[in-house]
């Protein structure tokens, strides 16, 4: 009897577990974005799981990039030991405290192979003990509100009919769905995702590649030695990454076809709208004819006898890139479609929360929407930060753990900033998006320092960090506005600025400071102009760009910065020898801040003569 | 000058003249000078027929320098060694010239010097050294220095400059002194606004001119390697092993970019050399840009941080002065036995006198001695624990049994053991402090700290902060040295428990840095008061304690005294505003806007009203215009390629709608 009851109980418990699994945090997808978030959840000791539909982590890289070569640089040496600084030039590693988990240990190639990244990601998950449940494909994500407690919970189904629940949902499924063409005749095209990568299949063929991104050029480069010629059609101008400072634009590693175009070796690049009714493909025997319409279908360009695409093609290959797959969401969530270019990214705010659904966040490559074409959030070296800094927001919002900060004396601020601008990697990679915030306390005598806060949420600073602030200095790194573009020579002789007094004209990445006596309002944040990263501050400072990105020069870098901080704090921030502090103390009621904070507490400096190393 | 005349009215007669005729015979007269100042030594001149010997003043004409000059003008200008104090002139902050003699030519040399002596009075003191009777090594000369050699040690310096061969003493002195027309010490103006020209800095932009004294002095080490011979440079890889394998390691965590780090590092390295001379090598550095993770794991947020590790564990941070001597003393005290075991009466006695352990007499003036009976275990334990707590601050010694009893008998008031006594060799007014009975280490530590305070200290940059912390007014005696009655009177008062609670201290008007005089003059609204002077100053709030106790009232009758009125606030605002980039950007934008509004609306070549901008023929001279027309006509005549004005085009209409090939 007893055993029977027990058996029933066991069965019941089993049923409940199978049907109703709950975690505080569910992360959908165990790619780089999901793993990064997983690491931070693990480190914070949270109740979480990563759900992965495949049997390995980072499964996207089992197939892509099709030609094996990653274009994120693997810079193994910088001549520096500083680990934080080195992350400025390491584009493949995820963040962790484990020094063996740096990508440079996994490949010697500057442009590594995708399998090497797969190895790295697998180790990252295992070594850090990130909780991943494989073979779990979720769908029908929906939200439910408990009528009595008024608390909401996310529900989703796996392929076995189980229901999985969580309080906070983080979707890190990446951009996994190839963007398909919509024009007439699209059935005659092939797609980057399944096109042959064997050059032999292109022997003596005439090829059109639709698309203007790195995947299009990657394909072109691999086959252009076999083809008759390649025409590349894209909507936008060729935007070279080195000119735009945007790593998603065309990278030098892929530009070979531009060479053969400009040298008139048959390959060519031209601009045209390639969607909808703007063009169509017509089968002419076993070849393809491209028909382009201008302004809808009014005038057909085919009427011109020297129409550039008047020859027939053997292959038309679509390389439109990838987009976010939102079929996993139930329609009950009422998710608005993004108005973004090519509809690639889900519509999220600067807090990475889905605009329409509270407690639902996007991490990883799909979180690039807010900084699309502005910063690096679409790439590992960017979203490893935007995946972790929002984690700090989650910690405050859901766990009551405030954003980490340190309190320092104002006379220590200059050194603290100089250290940060010479090593900080988060605001270096996510330039213009993340910034250090210095909250001014005790009428300018103390500073609370927060690293790498999403600066677009400045108006909500107290709300996202858990500290209440009003007067702040924000430090970001930024490129000069309006540096590149049509008719602009990025190698012009005056491309860089050397004088501190006109440092605001700096074009390359350099530190910029914004001082606000009061935090900007939501209205001020939303009424920024195109080139403004932050609203107009009360005081602004630029440190002049540096050829070495090493801001160690006493006169050109540090002195103007000190004067700026002095202006902001309305204090004399100079350092004095003990003897000078003593004299000032004897002759005044007050002494300069440094004497007050250091000399008077017994930590004065006595002048000593340098003895240099004998060479 | 009037102030000077007033202040020194008892010592000198002052005269002012605009008559060149009356001074042109004085030594050093230059016709092109606007202001000159002489002292005539008429009292000393015995011969009525000769004019008084005269000394020309050659320093800068300011109150402080003049006052200092007048203070020393009447000191004995020449001393003979042996028989005098060889540091006499240095103490007076004068340049010192030493002339080496032997027993045969002392008198001859004296006469020789006498001939030009008066010229240098108030600047240079002459030491005639009879090397047959006086050991020249005491002055820092080599034993084999030649007779008749002249050495000059400039004010504030420590080394002698020797007269080159074949030069005359007077010429040698003049050439060397010429370079010191301005006083040699660091001049710091009261509001610290002077920005000397930095030779390295050629920028004219004042915003780029360094006005931070410390930053300026550490510029020289920018990009250069300092001598780290006696400090270990730790890395993340070596840190744990090194700290664990060393009993005590003092580590400076610093930042290579930081001014304060650099300045402190210089002191730290100098301390390492001092310690190395004692065969001690307990210093190490960690540079926090290279060793970022190590510094992060140590939670370093202020640069530099000096941290003591004992057997690999963080012990405490050194929060003292970042000076070589201070760090040296701290480390010596840190490494000393805590406590030092003293087995005999003699040892204990030597300990109190600072002779045991050896090499500590220049490290500390305080000995804390625990005296125990054989059976006072509890107290001994508390004392030993206190000794560990006070590591780096004090030297503690422990004596037991007979030795302890014997020492106790030498101390007034016959002590009952166990007892702790604090002996201050630098406190002439209360050298011994006996601690109250104690049971635990905290009480011992407290007694050591309180007891070590000097009753009547000299007020210096290093003694000031501790007194300032007390938050009570200062009673400062400004006096010439301590060999006078008023010094002894105030000192004795300070040790009296019934006097008002203020910081009793003194400043030496004869000190080399001249600071005491400068401050005193400042307290008297830039007038020189008679000295000694007693001043009550409250640096924090203006409070006047009840000072008129009978003892103090008597004291005040003996000297000039005053309550220093409210000191200037000293707001310490920024010296210069930073660059106003917002304004520059606004201006730049405005200019740009104007530019584009012209081109955007009407295109290039039109003005803002849309009028076609006539070719710049206006500016062309008629000659040039004629020349151009000639060329134009010539070309027209010669060439069919030169376009005719208003001529028809050959361009076909279909060609003109040719779509731009790259922009469909």
Automatic annotation (TrEMBL), chain A:
Q: For this protein, what is any one GO molecular function term?
A: monooxygenase activity
Q: Which GO terms describe its biological process?
A: ERAD pathway
Answer yes or no on keyword RNA-binding: no
Q: Which UniProt keywords apply?
A: Oxidoreductase, Signal
GO CC annotation: endoplasmic reticulum lumen
Q: Does the keyword 4Fe-4S apply?
A: no
PROSITE patterns for the chain: PROKAR_LIPOPROTEIN (PS51257)
Q: Which SUPFAM superfamilies match?
A: FAD/NAD(P)-binding domain (SSF51905)
Write down the Pfam families for this protein, in alphabetical order: Pyr_redox_3
Q: Which PANTHER family match?
A: FAD-DEPENDENT OXIDOREDUCTASE DOMAIN-CONTAINING PROTEIN 2 (PTHR43539:SF23), FLAVIN-BINDING MONOOXYGENASE-LIKE PROTEIN (AFU_ORTHOLOGUE AFUA_4G09220) (PTHR43539)
Q: What is this protein called?
A: FAD-dependent oxidoreductase domain-containing protein 2
Recorded source organism is Ridgeia piscesae
**Upper classification of the organism:** Eukaryota, Metazoa, Spiralia, Lophotrochozoa, Annelida
Automatic annotation (TrEMBL), chain B:
Q: Which InterPro entries match?
A: Thioredoxin-like_sf, Thioredoxin_domain, TXNDC16, TXNDC16_2nd
Q: Which organism is it from?
A: Ridgeia piscesae
Span of domain Thioredoxin: 231-332
In which domain of life is the source organism classified?
A: Eukaryota
State where composition is biased (Acidic residues). Answer: 193-212
For region Disordered, the annotated ranges are 187-212, 643-664
Task: Give start and end of each TXNDC16 second thioredoxin-like domain.
Answer: 1-74
Q: What is the lineage of its organism?
A: Eukaryota, Metazoa, Spiralia, Lophotrochozoa, Annelida
Q: Name one Pfam family in it.
A: Thioredoxin_6
What are the Basic and acidic residues biased-composition ranges?
A: 650-664
Name listed for the protein in its UniProt record = Thioredoxin domain-containing protein
CDD domains in the cross-refs: PDI_a_family (cd02961), PDI_b_family (cd02981)
